[in-house]
């Protein structure tokens, strides 16, 4: 039953990706795929929960953790895309394909299908945890520990995004580096928050059974890797170095990921 439910989830996600790909080709912009990332994870958790005849306490907690995180992120990133337009990262990724007339196929393979596979994998703790928890599994101490880590992540992501949005809204900050609030202690409070959220969901899901933990740990591991070493911080910081003269100094004194007090000297 669980395998069939996960396969059905994958089909739903594929259908959603194809619809969004058609829209992206029509408007010649894939940047809204970032909103699909959070929204898709929320959807996977919700449909998993809806498959249960009588969802229990742990299943409902896991669903709420994923949906609250994913829905907020999807709305925030969609609004940001509407306000700022095409993301420079996707411009760079698809530049050669666009020049050679291969934008449509590249958008499908490099963006929407690729992100769908990763999205499904990262959200696997929520999906499998909900389905395995069913209607009987209570909220244990381990689940509460996961919830606490999730709450820390929510704080860092939501507050970090809010602080950055306020900073960007002030014309006086044009070309400046955001180094206030949470951004004083980590260069990526929103990414740190993302990682905490999904490690927290994984820990909470693990209370449904050790096999859930063992088969879905790849989700938070991969997410942490991509945020810190692949498509998250590295791509973003590459652009920041070129566009923000003070970024090198900020980078030298500020922790890359885990929040730490800023270094007093950079020499």
Outline the structure in words.
Helix content is 74%, strand content 0%. The chain has helices at 2-27, 33-50, 57-84, 88-99, 103-122, 124-133, 141-169, 189-206, 210-216, 218-229, 233-243, 247-253. The longest helix has 29 residues, at 141-169. The termini are far apart.
Feature tags:
about 270 residues
Judged by helices, strands and strand pairing, the structural class is: mainly alpha
Largest sheet data: none
Radius of gyration: 19 Å
Helix content: over 70%
How many helix segments?
Answer: 12
Anisotropy-based shape? globular
Q: Outline the low-pLDDT stretches.
A: none
Overall strand count: 0
Please tell me the overall pLDDT: 91
List the helices and strands and how they pair.
Layout: H1 2-27, H2 33-50, H3 57-84, H4 88-99, H5 103-122, H6 124-133, H7 141-169, H8 189-206, H9 210-216, H10 218-229, H11 233-243, H12 247-253
Helix pairs in contact: 1-2, 1-5, 2-3, 2-5, 2-6, 3-6, 3-8, 4-5, 6-8, 6-9, 7-8, 8-9, 8-10
Give a short summary of the structure.
This protein has 267 residues and is mainly α. Helix content is 74%, strand content 0%.
